[in-house]
Amino acid sequence: MKLFGTSGIRLKANEYLLQLGLKVGLVTGRRYKRIITGCDSRTSSPSLKNALIAGLCGAGACVHDAGIITSPALAYAARYFDAGVMVTASHNPADYNGFKLFNPDGFAFDYSQQKEIEEKILNNKLSSAPWQEISSPEPYPQAIEQHVNHILKNFPEKYDVKIVLDCGGGAGSVETPVLLRMLGCDVIELNCEPRGVFPRPPEPVEANLGELIKKVLQHKADLGLAHDGDADRLVAVDDKGRYIDGDILMVMLARSINAQSVVTTLDASMLIEEEKSFSIKRTPIGDNHVSLALKSWGDFGGEPSGSWIFPHVSYCPDGIFAAAQMASLASKQNISHAVDSFPRYPIIRGSVDSKGREFNPIKAQLMNMEAESFIDIDGIKMFFKDARLLVRASGTEPKIRITAEAKTKENARALYNESVDIINNALNESGVNS
User: Fold this and answer.
1) Are residues 219 and 72 in the same domain?
2) Which position among 7, 41, 45, 90 bears the catalytic label?
């Protein structure tokens, strides 16, 4: 059984996860001796964090606990320790939770680190320290302040802008309102109290932000901002109450920091490639892949889902820093005017039941399409003259996911339909041959 997914360990919160927290602590605490912990606002987070800390302390680690905190703030504080462990399920529903482990530079534990933890847990290679090496955890309340102060150093000006902020009842509630007010913003709070049961679904997609959109229009705000459960994501609504597509937001943020090289994922829109102010590199889908690429190339990275990585801060997606950057942008220009300057290309997304079949035969048939070029690092991304097609196996469900994009809706639909036909043919042939 594999414990780690694309963003740490994330499961339904139950007795298994509680037991797993103790084991993660026992294994991690034997290797890393000074550790900072924290959690988001979920009802299950305190008990899971206590189980984690029990394991860490039992393994002989010196533990400092930051309490309810955002993932970017915990990742930033990890620079003062050997590692950081955040109890969170990020944008997953309230009945999920998990553990995300950070290195001192804010980069999530890599494959080799994850593998070491997994193998010891799954093989029951657990041990505690001698009693005289076991200590009690100590509070570390200054972590949020350290993160906020670092962000403020990057934004010396005050911004006379009105912002509606929706923290979704998550961990961002304890940091982002404070930061924006320190930047001089007029902040109208929405769901900015930490709640164990979120007042809206924690994933900040357009369908979940109706109240934010309404408040932006009602208060004639310059900008609307929203976080997920642990505030590693940030999305935005313009002054006309329109949700800003993640691809557009990516370019706006990249321009605002004068980025010269940007790392993004395969599912980002082709409008990214048309941007002339920076060069781009694409990675498999997942912010951990973006962070890894940024270690050797690039000065900004992100995903259209709202994960924005500023490597001069840390390698953890930082929705708090992104909020400050958007406040700065709104003080200099009308956000809706900026949004209107971007082209909009129709995108059609869907999926096909994989029937448990391998992806390689599907990829082989897709490559018969007359594409100008392709990338096959995560499924296959095909580049046509005025269109793009991404086909990949889902990492969480038995599905083949399809994203077709073109400069006209008709071409996007035609490309999508053609890919579906090819996938179904490949699945049927695979079924006959199996």
Assistant:
1) no
2) 90
